[in-house]
Write a structure and sequence with these properties.
Blueprint (H helix, E strand, L loop, with lengths): L6 E10 L4 E14 L2 E10 L4 E3 L20 E16 L4 E16 L4 H5 L10 E13 L2 E3 L2 E17 L7 E14 L6 E16 L6 E3 L13 E3 L1 E17 L4 E16 L9 E12 L3 E9 L4 E7 L4
Antiparallel strand pairs: 1-2, 2-3, 3-5, 4-5, 5-6, 6-7, 7-9, 8-9, 9-10, 10-11, 11-14, 12-13, 14-15, 15-16, 16-17, 17-18
Length: 319
């Protein structure tokens, strides 16, 4: 298949004022380096102040935002990874990849934070751990319309992989399987009113791994009314749905604009072997979006759950 590019590079950098942490990532793809296979390069590095959320293990972990500040459940984790891959693309919207990677994690809790009380001070989780692993995946995507505001299509994929700690002192290893399905369907023939939904699961196989490799739900890409990684377990599932209505198109001499609103609902949970829970978590909300030049979309939303409310800004739609 002929690629639409010879090389493609994407660099992202983020700074988080709450923790003074930052991360930098790079993704590159080089066409036809090996017959019909492309070469992919994926890399990421964070500062020592970069933080993730940790609320404990389970589907019903307790969090009271009125009793603790947001830093209480933040855990500092310095990390980097490098993953080269071979990518095969067909003319029928199907792609597949084979990858090998190396990554490193070093956890440091905030003083008097949640992780400090959850883990023993001598726990291996606070040691610098390096992992190597491999991954395979296949992906189908025929979403059509504007790239930043797709109006019709189906996306299916599954990724499977294995990771193992390099140092035999830790003996951590896990396998994972992540199936994903999403679609966008135009309710009105104009394509200005669409229904979009996404479902994704994550199965962690094995019982010797650290919390940063566990399956989670919560945050901008799953349960949008909960904080990132709010629930953590061996298996996770979420389903998120949006009704998107583009109600105004403005054609100016400078920027053609499309303005619309969304209404969204999310449902999800995690499972653990030693936990008996029937609880499902949900959140709901909506957003206002502006699409310009038929190329970019700015989206600001408000989402509510039983324990929190969040304002989310995204560039484009996540599904």
């Amino acid at each position: 298949m002929r690629n639409p590019f010879t090389t493609q590079h994407t660099v992202n950098a983020s700074y988080y004022s709450a923790t003074q942490g930052f991360e930098v990532s790079y993704n590159g793809e080089f066409a036809h380096v090996f017959q019909n296979w492309n070469l992919g390069l994926d890399a990421r590095i964070t500062s020592a102040n970069f933080a993730v959320n940790f609320f404990g293990v389970g589907n019903e972990t307790v969090y009271n935002p009125d009793a603790v500040d947001m830093d209480f459940n933040r855990t500092k984790i310095s990390q980097w990874h490098f993953q080269p891959s071979l990518i095969y693309k067909t003319s029928g919207n199907v792609s597949a990849h084979i990858a090998a990677g190396v990554e490193s994690y070093e956890v440091e809790d905030f003083e008097n934070g949640f992780a400090e009380g959850f883990f023993n001070a001598a726990n291996d989780v606070f040691e610098n751990q390096m992992y190597v692993g491999g991954e395979v995946g296949i992906h189908f995507n025929n979403k059509s319309g504007l790239l930043s505001l797709p109006r019709r299509g189906l996306e299916l994929g599954v990724v499977a992989g294995y990771k193992q700690s390099v140092d035999s002192e830790f003996d951590n290893q896990l396998s994972y399987i992540k199936p994903t399905a999403s679609f966008i369907y135009p309710i009105h023939e104009s394509g200005l009113v669409t229904l979009a939904t996404k479902a994704q699961a994550n199965f962690i196989l094995g019982d010797s791994y650290e919390f940063y490799h566990a399956a989670t739900v919560g945050g901008n890409t799953s349960l949008r009314g909960f904080r990132n990684d709010r629930f953590l377990g061996e298996t996770s599932f979420f389903q998120t749905t949006d009704l998107r209505v583009c109600f105004l198109e403005v054609r100016t001499g400078f920027v053609p604009l499309r303005i619309g609103v969304t209404g969204g609902y999310d449902l999800g949970r995690v499972w653990n072997e030693n936990e008996d829970s029937n609880q499902w978590h949900d959140s709901y909300g909506g957003s206002i979006f502006i699409n310009g030049f038929q190329a970019f979309t700015a989206n600001i939303g408000y989402y509510q759950s039983v324990e929190d409310s969040r304002i989310i800004f995204t560039a484009g739609f996540r599904f």
